[in-house]
Design brief:
The chain is α+β, with helices and mostly antiparallel strands. It is about 20% helix and about 35% strand. The chain is built from 3 helices and 11 strands; from the N terminus they run H-E-E-H-E-E-E-E-E-E-E-H-E-E. Strands 1, 3, 5, 7, 8 and 10 form a 6-stranded mixed beta sheet that branches. The radius of gyration is 17 Å and the shape is globular. The termini are far apart.
């Protein structure tokens, strides 16, 4: 049963990678700045230099890093603080610049919408199909450090999947007038190692 689940997950990840690759090839064809080969891997993933965080808030963009390129699927429009995930599953993608083997350390700054009196949700994180752990995420942004083994990193192109166990609609609890289904909140992304 576990082998069947892993096989289905691998097939789903492969399909997502193919679709994302095609979408981003089309986007790059229409974006003059995207033709810079220094910004993209051969597989169509945006290059992420080590120790250079991507800030997802619309008021915190780094020159040369386009945050939207890293948001693969399942995201709403970016806000001042970062970006909310849409529903339960979100994906981030990047290619580790100048990767020549070894471990990579991934830092994700995450938050979640937790209504008053609600319990903290669990978020399962995987990279290229490798399960990296389940984490409790609160209202306040916090850095989560994850270690990616060489077998997970492969050629350097990485697809991170975040699975939220209980996305929330703020308007249901009369907390906010926000009718969106909020998954994980992403503030920043960086790699080192």
């Amino acid at each position: 049963m576990a082998a069947d689940s892993i096989s289905r997950l691998d097939r789903l990840q492969h399909l997502v990678e193919l679709v994302l690759g095609e979408l981003h090839v089309r986007r790059r064809e229409h974006d003059a700045t995207a033709h810079d080969p220094a910004r993209w891997s051969p597989g169509g993933f945006p290059l992420l230099p080590r120790n250079r965080p991507v800030q997802f808030g619309i008021d915190r963009e780094e020159e040369g890093l386009a945050p939207d390129d890293f948001l693969a699927s399942g995201w709403y429009a970016r806000e001042n603080w970062g970006v909310w995930g849409r529903d339960a599953v979100q994906a981030i993608r990047f290619s580790a610049a100048d990767y020549h083997g070894g471990y990579l350390d991934l830092q994700l700054t995450l938050r979640s919408f937790v209504p008053p009196g609600g319990s903290l949700p669990d978020v399962d994180i995987s990279a290229n199909g490798y399960f990296l752990g389940s984490h409790r995420i609160g209202n306040a942004a916090r850095v989560y450090r994850l270690r990616l083994p060489p077998s997970c990193v492969g050629d350097g192109d990485i697809l991170i999947q975040l699975r939220h166990d209980s996305p929330q609609i703020p308007a249901k609890g009369d907390v906010l007038r926000d009718n969106r289904i909020l998954g994980i909140g992403l503030v920043a992304l960086s790699v080192s190692g």
